[in-house]
Amino acid sequence: MQRVVMVLIAMTALARAEDEIHSIRFADQRVVAGATFGLLASDDAAASWHWMCPAAVGYSGLFEPDYELTSGAVLATTFDGLRVMRDGCSFGATPLGMTFVSSIAVGPDGAIYAAASDAADTKIYKSTDQAMTFPTSAAPAGATWWTSIEVAPSDASRVYLAGYEVMTGGSKQHYLYASSNGGTSFGPLSIAGLVTTANSTLELAGVDASDPNIVYVQVTFDTAAGGASLYRSADGGASWSKILSRDSHIAFLASRAGILIAGTRTAALAESSNGGASWTTVACSPHVACLAENAAGEIWACTHNFDADGIPSDGFAIMKRGSFWAGVMRVQDVAGPVDCATGTVQHDTCAPAWPAIDQRLDTAPFGTLDCPMTPDDFGPRDDTKPLPAPQGCCSTSGGGASALLALFVLVTMVRSREYCPSCRAVHSSRRRRCGSTR
């Protein structure tokens, strides 16, 4: 029976590995990344990564948990309730038991919010002791499914909530709420001006880093053809104005520097320094599925590791933005499964399944972010050097950069090595890490 479970885990992960990373969370030196083939974890600020399979987290199939990371715990939503890992190896139940939690968030004060979307429970729970207890709860009326919850970075008492209720006939009634007392109670917000269709959902996209009254909402499937739009409110959700539309789900970040960043898996990133009134396309940007900011103010993105789904590869599964977009992690470089004791699901079920996952990740097709090369790209990058000015960035006309790349790929194939360029990576050997990429 165990062997059958192992095979099913491997088959599920192999079939969906091309979907890559869908979330990134930070806490001190720890980073966790939610992937379609499990959870990737780093305890050394992303210098090395290890894998946990879905079964160790407590889910299976196509489900993608909502993860949160605190100083002492990793939390994950599953169909068996909100689960927590404190020892780095085993996820267990929280006091909420089997109640299904659809969305979680951590406030700037470390408080954990859990939005229940269970048949018998749609309360919003709060914990101030690393999910050991959830003594505070509120019951906003109406919604039966909470899509998202966000806490204002500058005001731990301001909590925003989005959800919907499926009405008779299949239509949706959308809801937005806000709390000004740390989740003790919630009041309704206006949804006037938010254009929806029968298939739409409302999702909280973010809250301004310094003004808790500036909040962003994303409306998915806002036209009959699909697409998504971002809306901004400067008055705490009393009124809304559209600031951006794209043809698919938008990854969005309101950075602490006041810059708005938005992108999709197919469209280039765009940035705004005036609250979304105008946007500038970011040249040579990766394809993003998520955006996140760590305590140091670095902008990280879930990017497209493989050539798949008709989308060209960025060469990395996670990248971060400095003076340019640089690689942080490729799934090919994951060191192996998290090492846990005998008797844990991670040891007994996940570890034996790793070789099949490893082989798939090492042989999947991938490419590089299409940016120009410079002489400095041939060796370890020295981050103290000034960056060269971009020339012909993202050009598809070939030219010297393309010829130089082709020559270098040939050299790397002969020498069985890889290089760490400013703007892309070429991988021609198995997991040979470039130590100067961070």
Describe the structure.
- With 438 residues, this protein is mainly beta.
- The chain has two domains: 2-249 and 329-359, TolB, C-terminal domain (Neuraminidase, 6 Propeller); 370-438, no CATH class.
- It is 12% helix and 32% strand.
- The chain contains four helices and 29 strands.
- It has helices at 2-16, 54-57, 345-363, 400-415; strands spanning 21-27, 30-35, 38-42, 50-52, 67-69, 74-78, 81-85, 91-93, 101-106, 112-116, 124-127, 136-138, 145-151, 159-166, 172-179, 187-188, 201-207, 215-223, 226-233, 241-246, 251-254, 260-263, 270-272, 280-281, 290-293, 299-302, 318-321, 325-329, 336-337.
- Strand 22 and strand 23 form a beta hairpin.
- Helix 1 runs parallel beside helix 3.
- The protein is globular.
